[in-house]
Each structure stands twice: as C-alpha cells, then as structure tokens.
Amino acid sequence: MRLLPALLTASFAALASARCGTRDPSERVHAQHKYFLEKEDREAARIAAARDVFDVTVDTYVHVVISNTTAGINATTLPSQIHEQIDVLNENYLGTGFQFNLVNVSYTHNDKWTAIMDGSTTEYEVKSTLRRGDYTALNLYFGTIGSGILGYATFPDTVTPREFLLDGVVCDPQSLPGGKAPYNLGITAVHETGHWLNLFHTFQPGNDDPAQPGCYGHGDYIHDTPAEAYAAFGCPASRDTCKGAVEANNTLSVPGPDPIHNFMDYTDDRCLTTFSAGQITRMQNSWREERVAYVPMGMRRRSPGGLLPDLKAELGLGLKGKIARPGSGW
Ligand SMILES: *[C@@H]1O[C@H](CO)[C@@H](O)[C@H](O)[C@H]1NC(C)=O
Ligand SMILES: *[C@@H]1O[C@H](CO)[C@@H](O)[C@H](O)[C@H]1NC(C)=O
Ligand SMILES: *[C@@H]1O[C@H](CO)[C@@H](O)[C@H](O)[C@H]1NC(C)=O
Ligand SMILES: *[C@@H]1O[C@H](CO)[C@@H](O)[C@H](O)[C@H]1NC(C)=O
Ligand SMILES: [Zn+2]
After folding, report:
1. What residues does the Peptidase M43 pregnancy-associated plasma-A domain cover (predicted)?
2. pLDDT tens across 257-306, in order?
3. Same domain, yes or no, for 216 and 254?
4. Residue of the CA atom closest to atom 11 of ligand 2
5. Which of 130, 139, 222, 254 shows its CA 20 to 30 Å from the CA of 37?
6. Domain check: are 158 and 241 in the same one?
C-alpha cells in the first residue's frame, strides 16, 4: 500500500499504516504462508532440477469510479493512462510467469462513491456492482480511497461469497502512469497486485519488538528477501535496518541490505524494480493452489481429492461455509 505525498509529513506510525492500506494478514493467511514456505523448502531441490514452465495470462478488468470530489482524473488522458498502466504491469511482471490481458474498462460516475475505503459500505457497493470474472480474474479499481492511501488489495484465501465480491485491487487514480510524483509511474498497481498474488510486505512484522518488528521471526515468509525492520520511503541507498546477530540468527531470511528496490517495499516508484526468485515461486504456487483451485459452490467435486487437501489438513479447515458461490459480480 502506498501513500500520497501530501501526507508524507505525518508521523512515521501514521505513515507506515497509511501508505498501503492492505490489511494485516489474518491468522489463516499466515498459516497458508507457513504451509507454502515449508512446501517450497521441501521442493527446492526438485524444482531447481526441473521447473515447470509457468505461463499465465490474467484476465484483467479495470473499473474507473469517479465522484464529484475525485482528484487526479483528466478525462482526455485517462484512457491512455489505463493502457499504460497495463503495459507497466506487464513490463514489471516479465519473468514472473504472469502477464495481464485487459478485457474491459468500465467507467462509473456516482457522487455517493467518494471514498472506497477498505471495509466500508461504499467498497461493498462498488465491488458488488462492478466485479467481473472468477477468482483468477484481476479486478483493478481506480477511485479515491481517502486518508492519503494510494492502494490496497486482498490476499487469496478461502473466501466467503461476500469476500469473493471484495476480491481485487483498489488504487487512487493519482497513482496511474502520469499521475502525481513520486508515485506516478504505475508501480502502486504492481505492488498491490503483488498482494493479490499473495505477497506480503518485505518488512512484514515477524515479532513483537517495536524497534525492529521485521528483523526476526517469520517476516514475509520468503527466504531471499533480506529482513527489514520497517518500511522504507524515498530511495535510501544502502539502507540496512537489520544487522548483526539478529540478522545472522534469522533462519527465515538472508543477511543483506534492506530490499528497497523490491516491489513489496514502500519506496518511490522509480526505486521499485524487482521481485525476488522466492516471491515469484510463492506467487506461482499460490496461483495454482489458491486461485485456480478455487471451486465455487456447486462445482466443488470437479477435482479429485477436492480443494487444497494439504492446506486444508494443515489448517484444520472444514469446507462448510468456506466456499464462495457466484455473487452478483460473478
Ligand atoms: C488534460 O490533458 C490534456 C492533454 O495532456 C491537457 O491538454 C489538458 O490541459 C489537461 N486538462 C486538465 C484539466 O489538466
Ligand atoms: C465493458 O464493461 C461495460 C460496463 O460494464 C459494458 O457496458 C460493456 O459492454 C463491456 N464491454 C465489453 C466489450 O465487454
Ligand atoms: C457532490 O455530490 C453530492 C451528492 O449529489 C453533493 O451532496 C455534494 O454537495 C457534491 N459536492 C461537490 C463538491 O460538488
Ligand atoms: C544468536 O544465536 C547465538 C547462538 O545460538 C546466541 O548465543 C545469541 O544469543 C543469538 N543472538 C540473538 C541476538 O538472538
Ligand atoms: Zn502493500
């Protein structure tokens, strides 16, 4: 999640929570990551020897939501900015196995939809009206979120029908290519889509230590992103917030400077350039198990063995109430 420049004078705590509005992962989502990390460790040797070709094109539906108070929209340039945004996604996801195909753009003017805040009635109204496609379709909304928040996203999960409708990415129109510096290169959508594909922030807290919450513990559950105490802003060259024994003792991470160029940090658009190999593996595994394998109610017997047998066992989940059925946006 990312924050508008106007709020960069806010206190650090406010800033860190407002820049990306993606909510803290639930216990269940944490458990999924523990499951994936262990699975990926077991499979690492085999994968290195013979990696399947992963080549997925994600159907992408863009929805522009405009009210009488929406800032950052120029009707003349908007259509080309949206196409540039899809190009930016595709350029930056090159080498990840994911590409994005723009299926349709919808434009909605509604003066009541002034702020698409996470958890708000407006969010539900917007998404339940506009959402298209199944759980493998990316719905990318552009509209004002409020509180200086540049974007937020949902993680893949075993969703309820309501959560199915809420699935997707929301970005402020000022984060589009040609928007408001220093977040004007379309990287907010790259970051938020990373969450949608199941990535955590590189500085994801792994412990209760307020001074260095990201330095030890599970962090982002990805080995090859060096631990980072908290979010980075601007583009602070050779920043290194986790050092010494704390870092050396962290078996869930690798020593090294903070991953300020990683898309899942908070630095300026021009500073964010890369996903790590471990993140790419996590996105691909999550896609296979949590989005493609997602079977709506009434279709659940399609795959022998059912949905996510390992993960279900790991989490002790029953299927009851966990399977979404098509909603109005199906
Ligand atoms: C919108 O963009 C066009 C093309 O760049 C420009 O000529 C126009 O002045 C802009 N409109 C506003 C209100 O900024
Ligand atoms: C695109 O979405 C709009 C709004 O939902 C709809 O009216 C239009 O028919 C769609 N176009 C295509 C090509 O699907
Ligand atoms: C926007 O529209 C709403 C609803 O029609 C109205 O109450 C409000 O005064 C309008 N605000 C502005 C700034 O035009
Ligand atoms: C790191 O590990 C060593 C050896 O197990 C231990 O003695 C030391 O206290 C640990 N340091 C920290 C900061 O956890
Ligand atoms: Zn984020």
Report:
1. 180-285
2. 999 999 999 999 999 999 999 999 999 999 999 998 675 443 444 444 33
3. yes
4. 104
5. 139
6. no
